[in-house]
Write a structure and sequence with these properties.
The chain folds into three domains: 72 residues, no CATH class; 105 residues, Sandwich (Immunoglobulin-like), CATH 2.60.40; 90 residues, Immunoglobulin-like (Sandwich). By secondary structure, it is α+β, with helices and mostly antiparallel strands. It has nine helices and twelve strands. It is found in: Membrane.
């Protein structure tokens, strides 16, 4: 039984070592600085714990040998003074380490990409801009960045306080209504890095995730060119019928599909929604079935979100899901 409990405890402990979203799985300049600080603090605290535990054990072993003579008093006084001095030095050292780590979070250099990040209950809007601050295109819940380049994020909130946190690439920074905060990311290698809103923002706070997809320069430029293009025209009859359904229903009043009459701004831009890995801020994988489930009853899938339930027949739902799937 004892062996079983120890094994279970080991597995529970190792379960927290997943690299899906971990500050100890750093692949960006800022995240690496934070990782070094965390490891340094863990090592120092572990050493302190071992020393204190050792003294406690030594005291318990010698508890019958305690003397109250002058030598013992002098040793006790010296020990207390040494402990106080060591405490002051350690606290001062950790404070300085935190200060310099905070300074290192500001990455110098001109950004290669500028993205305005707008957080709202409960999804992320990413607006890509050129060097003249002109919008090129926008997407939702997926942030693509070129590897090895500085990406400047202009963080804004539409409603309540949110917090942008991709632990493998940088520390978290709040998005506050009426204020713009700046955060610079730089991914050191290609990969997909999960992020999360790290400030409680309401009912679906835990379902407000994002993906940062770091690509080499060629792949990033290819992706950006595709995102800047208008939506492709459906070639299948079912998807063409779905496009007509989309533009005849309230969908077009809330969402934008560039190249069509749909120019709504209250919901995510759906021009290339079929090419995203997830929908509903990471809640569902982007499949035709997931799209249909989300369209049919968004309040069951993600209670409290701002998307209304649109009355559709079974044929209209099937056609609309087929159209969304083609938007890549």
């Amino acid at each position: 039984m004892k062996s079983f409990c120890l094994t279970a405890l080991l597995f529970i402990t190792l379960a927290g070592c997943s690299s899906n979203q971990s500050a100890l799985n750093a692949h960006g300049h800022s995240a690496i600085a934070l990782q070094h600080l965390i490891i340094g603090m863990i090592v120092i605290c572990t050493v302190i714990w071992l020393i204190v535990t050792g003294f406690l054990a030594w005291t318990l072993i010698r508890r019958g040998e305690v003397r109250q003579d002058e030598v013992s008093t002098r040793i006790m006084t010296t020990s207390v003074k040494s402990a106080a001095t060591a405490t002051a030095v350690i606290v001062a050292g950790l404070t300085l380490a935190s200060f310099y780590t905070t300074r290192s979070l500001s990455i110098s250099g001109h950004p290669a990409v500028v993205v305005t990040v707008k957080a709202q209950q409960w999804w992320w809007q990413f607006i890509y801009k050129d060097q003249n601050d002109v919008t090129i295109f926008q997407t939702a819940n997926e942030l693509h960045v070129p590897v090895g380049e500085n990406v400047q994020l202009e963080l804004e909130s539409i409603d309540v306080i949110h917090s942008f946190w991709v632990p493998s690439l940088a520390g978290k920074l709040d998005l506050i209504p009426g204020r713009r905060n700046l955060l610079t990311l730089r991914a050191d290698r290609p990969g997909i890095y999960r992020g999360q809103c790290a400030e409680f923002c309401g009912l679906q706070h835990s379902h407000m995730a994002l993906l940062v997809i770091a690509q080499d320069e060629v792949d990033f430029q290819r992706w950006a060119a595709g995102q800047a293009a208008a939506a492709i025209e459906p070639t299948v009859e079912e998807a063409s019928a779905g496009k007509a359904v989309f533009n005849s229903k309230p969908c077009a009043a809330c969402h934008t599909v560039r190249g069509t009459p749909a120019v709504g701004t209250s919901g995510p831009d759906l021009t290339h929604v079929g090419g995203r890995q997830t929908i509903a801020a990471g809640l569902l994988q982007t499949t035709r079935g997931s799209l249909a489930a989300w369209i049919a009853d968004p309040q069951t899938v993600k209670p409290g979100n701002n998307m209304p339930t649109v009355p559709l027949t079974s044929d209209e739902l099937r056609q609309l899901a087929a159209y969304m799937e083609t938007l890549k």
